[in-house]
Amino acid sequence: ADSWRQSWAAFKNKHIDSKSQYPPHNMNLYCENQMRNRRMTRPLCKPHNTFIYAPESIVQQICQNIRGPAAITSRVSFNLVDCRYTGGSPPNSCNYQGSMWTKYIAVTCVNYVPVHFIRFV
């Protein structure tokens, strides 16, 4: 059963940004572009999503000792951009308001990788 691998891939697509500049020049535009490019605006605009600014390996370390499934809070804080839907229509006109945070993150770990983003704390 390797469904957890797909879940790690999905987690990376939904939540990890190791390439963009932090902080983004325009947070709302950043959210709109990222949500669209990562296919979270079809069939509907996803109402809420958080992006973690960090290399995949650093995010994965949160779960390094946890076979799980278990909810765990990171021991280090992360730079985050939190995106909330404010209106507009899918797939190409979903509007988002972005806000920046530096917070610990709570995730669900399965087989030593994060598979679900719970919240930031």
Can you describe this structure?
The protein is α+β, with helices and mostly antiparallel strands and 121 residues long. Helix content is 24%, strand content 40%. The protein has three helices and seven strands; from the N terminus they run αβαβαβββββ. Strand 4 (78-89) and strand 5 form a beta hairpin. It is globular. GO terms for molecular function: endonuclease activity; hydrolase activity; nucleic acid binding; RNA nuclease activity. Pfam families: RnaseA.
Number of helices: 3
What is the tally of beta strands? 7
Biggest sheet: strand arrangement: 1-2-4-5
Taking the alpha carbons of the first and last residues, their distance comes to: 32 Å
Low-confidence runs: none
What is Rg? 14 Å
Structural class: alpha+beta
Describe the oligomeric state of these chains in a short phrase: single chain
Percent range of helical residues: 10-25%
Strand content: 35-45%
What pattern of helices and strands is seen along the backbone? HEHEHEEEEE
Major sheet characteristics: 4 strands, mixed
| Overall geometric form | globular
Mean pLDDT across every amino acid position: 95
Helix/strand layout:
Elements: H1 3-15, E1 16-17, H2 27-37, E2 48-53, H3 56-60, E3 70-73, E4 78-89, E5 93-103, E6 105-110, E7 113-120
Parallel strand pairs: 1-2
Antiparallel strand pairs: 2-4, 3-6, 4-5, 6-7
